[in-house]
Amino acid sequence: MLLTVDDDVNVSRAVARDLRRRYGGDYRVVRAESGAQALEALGEIKLRGDEVAILLADYRMPGMNGIEFLEQAMDLFPTARRVLLTAYADTSAAIDAINVIDLDHYLLKPWDPPEEKLYPVLDALLDAWLATDRRPVAETRVVGHRWSARSYEVRDFLARNHVPYRWYLADEPEGERLLTAAGASPDAIPCVITTDGTALVNPSDGELASQVGLATAPAGDFYDLVVVGGGPAGLGAAVYGASEGLRTLLVERHATGGQAGQSSRIENYLGFPDGVSGSQLTDRARRQAVKFGAELLTTADVVALEAAGPARRLVLGDGASIDAHAIILATGVSYRQLDAPGLHDLTGQGVFYGSALTEAPGCSGENVYIVGGANSAGQAAMYFARHAKSVTMLVRGRGLEASMSHYLIEQIAAVPNIHVRACTEVISGHGTDHLEGLVLRDNATGETERVDTQWLFIFIGAAPRTDWLDGVVARDEHGFVLAGPDLVVDGRRPAGWAAERDPYHLESSLPGVFVAGDARAESVKRVASAVGEGAMAVALVHRYLAKR
Ligand SMILES: Cc1cc2nc3c(=O)[nH]c(=O)nc-3n(C[C@H](O)[C@H](O)[C@H](O)COP(=O)(O)OP(=O)(O)OC[C@H]3O[C@@H](n4cnc5c(N)ncnc54)[C@H](O)[C@@H]3O)c2cc1C
User: Fold this and answer.
1) What CA–CA distances, in Å, run from 181 to 74, 350, 355?
2) pTM to 2 decimals?
3) Atom of ligand 1 nearest to the CA of 335
4) Residues 350, 356, 361, 363: what is their CA dihedral angle, to the nearest 10 degrees?
5) Pocket residue to mutate for ligand 1, from 318, 370, 405, 527, most atoms within 8 A of Cβ
6) Using CA atoms, how far apart are residues 6 and 2, in angstroms rounded to an integer?
7) Nearest-CA neighbor of 37 among 18, 9, 79, 78?
8) Which of the four, 50, 210, 317, 431, has the lowest number of CB atoms within 10 Å?
9) Can you point out the beta strands (E) in 320-407?
10) Is residue 372 lining ligand 1, measured as CB closer than 6 Å?
11) Ligand 1 mean position, distance from CA 333 (Å)
12) What spacing in Å lies between the alpha carbon of 239 and ligand 1's midpoint?
């Protein structure tokens, strides 16, 4: 953009006309009639992620003179070239401005003929501007603090939903400029600036989802099949359901991909001999589901399930309800919280559950601690070891052998900056606005040790979050959903079972409601089995629909 500001409308139009004549093919010319109006325009340009090459301001303007305007404009576009238009009588002020605001040039009015007096000056300034590093940013931008839990959540949400974004610290110059352009104070974080220039201060996940183009409300109110949960099981069900002609809706609370989407490298999924990142695998599955016509909702939390005559009804967190002929529950599991003093308050501020892959670059050169001894912890250790100075795995048991795949144990042993501390537990964490250290206990000797670290990633046992199904479908004592043969005890069908047949294999105690993946009692907790159960559940849905 080339921006010109002059309170004299005739002069302002004449400048803009001359600029357009020569530069209109390559640049947009923006015209303002006061400093305040020009600053407002610059704010919008900044939020849209566009760039300003030249600021051309008249010196004598009421309210805010040209030098004052250029000084404030520099805060938003420090690399834009600055030109002052002056009358002969004001040349001394213009010369002073060369020092005050690092003025690139002053032009005496009138500038006729422009071919001699205006264009040669601007050509040179544009050449210089083009040579500077001022790549425009077309992605969503997030401004926040390193240790703000909500800033982390927003980045994690965008990353897991495959929305490209660029991250700026609120106290670095470009972060400050973006906050100024958004009219937000330095503590109004996280501030998300979408690709169309809309600034959202501390947006909810729902607001974010709709701003970045993710559907948050269903298009219809009745479907053949609604799948709850967008992990591998849910995505598998959506792909098979939609491709086999069922009107299919998938409802996901946070981001499609589920746990698998957080995996840095899945090496045991069939067909990927070199491994595949969980995010890539699940993004392909999401696109495949959409290609076959499945409808996907994000940030929609299912909070209740009920029978509505022959239909099955789901209630969402916002009170909306959706009916379907059949339901597949694919709600998986979530990490358990580590119950040690100090950790709860520091969650998102150095203490993270699950991979938190977005944080890896921030760990560069630092000492990272990982709690857990299963495959997920091992994968995270391998991933963080590429960035961190050292990675220490804290394992409660006597080693990794009982809980981790052999291939991963071998990989870990070969990485010099990963250390495994067996028989070790985190007793507490401390820090003011972020994690600063941990107290560890050696379970064999009872000795405690205090270690300094800003990074703790926790991968301990996972639990199904199925309380909302209480009283509707039968669950085991841990909350996993019982299905198929597990429901028939001593030849007796489950209480309230109305159909004149036994439950199908993945069918819950409510006919027409199926369960797939990690949420099912006795499931295998693998990507492959979750995908397989998603596909199998759809086959059983067809059988259920045919024989109702
Ligand atoms: C870091 C990590 C690494 C792993 N590595 C491997 C590996 O290498 N190989 C392997 O085979 N397995 C691996 N696993 C395990 C594997 O990812 C899981 O077994 C698999 O993701 C289970 O799929 P799922 O669809 O059943 O559940 P999940 O992946 O847990 O997905 C469930 C989804 O349902 C959503 N949801 C839950 N409740 C609701 C609700 N009420 N309303 C709306 N949505 C809801 C959740 O937000 C989530 O997205 C790993 C797991 C983790 C965490």
Assistant:
1) 12, 29, 34
2) 0.80
3) 53
4) 30
5) 527
6) 14
7) 9
8) 317
9) 321-329, 334-335, 351-353, 367-371, 390-394
10) no
11) 6
12) 17
Three-state DSSP state, 514: strand
Give the amino acid at 57. A
**Hey, what amino acid is at 363?**
C
Question: Is 230 a pocket residue for ligand 1 (Cβ < 6 Å)?
Answer: yes
Least Cα distance to 152 among 439, 337, 356 occurs for 356
Check if 502 has its Cβ closer than 6 Å to any atom of ligand 1. no
8 A C-beta contact, residue 58 and residue 66: yes
Q: Select from 255, 315, 329 the least CA-distant residue to 285.
A: 255
Which tens digits make up the pLDDT trace of 263-288?
Answer: 888 888 999 888 888 988 999 999 99
Give per-residue pLDDT as tens, 190-205.
999 998 889 999 999 9
Structure confidence at residue 219 as a pLDDT band (50, 70, 90): very high
CA atoms within 13 A on the CB side of 392: 20
Radius of gyration (C-alpha) of the chain in whole angstroms: 30
CA of 527 to the centre of ligand 1 (A): 8
CA-CA distance, 209 to 137, in Å (whole number)? Answer: 20
Which residues fall within 8 angstroms of residue 319, CB to CB, at 6 or more apart? none
447 close to 441: Cβ distance less than 8 angstroms: yes
Decide if 496 contacts 503 (C-beta within 8 A).
Answer: no
Pairing of strands 424-430, 513-515: unpaired
- Whether ligand 1 lies within 6 angstroms of the CB of 508 is answered as no
